[in-house]
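User: C-alpha cells in, sequence out, please.
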C-alpha cells in the first residue's frame, strides 16, 4: 500500500459560507476543537490521570481585503450590543482526493475585527478570529485499504 502524491488534498479547492453567503475572497480558514481536562491523582499511583471536562471550539478566517468583512458583519452589532447569530459551513473538495470534507460550526462569536489597516505595496488581508459553541461533521474522508490502492 503506497500513498500517491496526487491524493494529498489541495486547499485551493476549499470554500466557506458565513450565514449562507459564500465568501469568495477566502484566503484561509482553520477550525479547531481543544479538549479540556482536569488532572486526577489516585491514591497509591504516582502517575497523573485526566478526566475529560469539555471542549472549546475556535477558528480563524483570513480573507483577501476586497470587502470590509469584519466591520460589515460586526460594527453595528458592537455599537448596539446585539451580536449576530453566525453559522459557518466549510467544504474541501479536491477532485484528486479520496472524497470531500464538509463541516459546520454554529454559535460563532467573533473575538475582534479589523477597522482599518494601511500598508504600502502590500496586498492586504483581514483576519477574523472566533470561537464556536457547536459543530457537526457533515462529510469526511474515510480511511480504507481499498481506496489507498486507487
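Assistant: Sequence out:
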Amino acid at each position: 500500500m503506497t500513498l500517491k502524491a496526487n491524493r494529498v488534498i489541495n486547499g485551493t479547492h476549499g470554500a466557506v459560507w458565513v450565514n449562507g453567503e459564500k465568501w469568495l475572497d477566502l484566503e484561509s480558514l482553520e477550525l479547531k476543537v481543544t479538549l479540556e481536562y482536569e488532572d486526577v491523582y489516585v491514591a497509591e499511583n504516582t502517575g497523573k490521570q485526566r478526566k475529560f471536562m469539555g471542549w472549546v471550539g475556535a477558528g480563524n478566517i483570513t480573507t483577501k481585503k476586497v470587502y470590509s468583512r469584519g466591520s460589515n458583519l460586526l460594527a453595528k452589532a458592537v455599537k448596539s450590543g446585539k451580536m449576530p447569530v453566525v453559522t459557518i459551513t466549510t467544504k474541501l473538495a479536491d477532485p484528486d482526493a479520496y472524497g470531500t470534507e464538509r463541516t459546520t460550526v454554529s454559535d460563532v462569536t467573533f473575538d475582534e475585527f479589523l477597522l482599518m489597516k494601511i500598508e504600502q505595496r502590500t496586498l492586504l488581508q483581514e483576519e477574523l478570529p472566533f470561537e464556536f459553541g457547536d459543530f457537526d461533521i457533515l462529510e469526511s474522508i474515510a480511511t480504507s485499504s481499498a481506496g489507498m490502492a486507487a
